[in-house]
Structures are given as C-alpha cells and as structure tokens.
Amino acid sequence: MTGPDDVRRLADRLVAEATDLRDRLAAGDRGADAALERVDSAVRELGAALATVGGRAEAAVDDGPVPLPPVEVTVPVLGVDACKAGWVGAILEPGAPRPRVAVASSISGLVESVRQSLGIEVVGIDIPIGLPDASTREADALARRALAGKASSVFTTLTRAAYAEATRAEADVVNRALAGQGVGAQAFALRAKILEVDAWVRSRPTVGVLEVHPELSFAVMAGAPLLSGKKTDEGRRDRLAALAAAGLASPSVLTGPGYAADDVLDACAAAWTAARHAAGDARPLPDPPQTWSDGIPAAIWA
Known about the structure:
Elements: H1 4-26, H2 32-54, E1 77-83, E2 86-92, E3 100-104, H3 107-115, E4 122-125, H4 138-146, H5 160-163, H6 168-179, H7 185-189, H8 191-202, E5 208-212, H9 214-222, H10 233-245, H11 261-278, E6 284-290, E7 298-301
Helix pairs in contact: 1-2, 1-4, 9-11, 10-11
C-alpha cells in the first residue's frame, strides 16, 4: 500500500531526475533524451501514488519540521564560504556569544590567520572536496535527494581531469569522455576555488577539513529545507531564525567589503556542521565517503 513516505521518496526522485535533466540540457548532453524518459516515469509513478494516498478517508497528521536541539560548541571551529573578496569565515568557540567573521583572499591565508589566535580543530568549507577520476559523485546525488525543493542548489562536480582544463569547452570534452556528462556553467565557474581548496587539502593541513553544503546544513538544522531564496530579505530572516534556534546568535557582522549577508550566513551554517562534527554528531553523505586516486574522502557533511 502506498503511503506518505512513498510519496516523499518519489517526489525526491523526481526532483533529482529533473535536476539531472536540467544539467544535461544546459550542457547539450546527448543523454538528455534518456533523462527525459526517467523524469516522465517518475511523474507517472508520483501521480499514481498521490491518487492512492489522496483517496483514503483518513490521513496521517504531519506535525511539520522538527528542528534539532541547539548545537554544543565544544572546541573552536571555522565555517567557510567563497565570496568576491576570496573567502569569508564564521568562527565558533566555546562560551562565545555569537560567530565572529574573518575574511581573506586565500583559503590557506584565512585558516592560518584564525589559527594565529585560536586553536581551531575543524574547518567546514562550502566547496567540493575529493574529485572523481571518471564518474560523478554520490555526495552530490544524495544531497539533491535530501533537498526537496532546493535540489537545484547542488551542482554536479566535474572530474579532476576536466577541472585541469583552462576553458569550459575543453573541460566539456574531457568530462563527457570520462563521466558521460557535459559541463554546467556553475560547476565550471567555481573551478579556481575548487582547485585552490584541492591544493590546500593535498598539502595536508594539520586541521580537520570537511566539505559542507549550507542548504543541506540548514535543512538538517531546521528539520526541512529552507525554500526561501538566500539572497532575499525573507531568506535572510529564515536563516537567521534557523541559526538562532540552533543556538547561534546573529554573527558579529553580516556584510562588508567583498562579502554579502548570504555568504556570512552560509559560513555560519558550515561552522554549525563543523561544531557537530567535533562533537561526533555530524553525518556524511555518502556513508562511508567515496575515494578516488587522490585518496581524499568525498562526502558532504551535515
């Protein structure tokens, strides 16, 4: 018998398939026809499931999202998001009333400047970490499935060889040959940031490093994805409210030269996940993480 959980599962599948189709169409992928057939199949299954559930006389009552309890900050941690100035960080430490904000032009410079005055133990970064050799990543697909209504915020990470190419056109040829997918604009636009973090991680910094996705962190934090746009006034209020419910007061500043409020709030969400990891509460997607020739565990933590 079809139930609400089945409907949610099918809805998540539809979002993931539709996002894959969008990426393929944007990149001119020849596999778009097959992706369209999968979307059509998912729509038909979802329609049948909704009809079954809607025909019942009695429906289960949904109590709504259930936020997690406030996070316990046990050690100093840093959450990081890319911004026009380079990188913006949100610093959490035990006993501090609110996240402190730091900015630097490079990821290594940001981490080292914070470590000069504070012994941070975990750094959460909103950037893909661990690049595949000849495939896509489970982390991206699983994050999309977990973000019903916000799945489009997760782009498909390219192969390491594709990111080594200087232009999107050249990367497209390489990625199609290795992973069977074209190169989306967002995935390639972050090329410089991805390679910067990749080089830093491969230098073996003496601090724990996690990949995070702020939308996934906010979804886990609030009990459901935050559907409001992060650059809107409503989105800013929703994210500040989610952070407050999670025990994090509004950060010391929200905007400044080269960074915007959504950058700072994303960094705060990354810091929240870093604090959960330090306390042993964060979980990776996938579990266990994937690894390829670079030996770097690839997973999105929340």
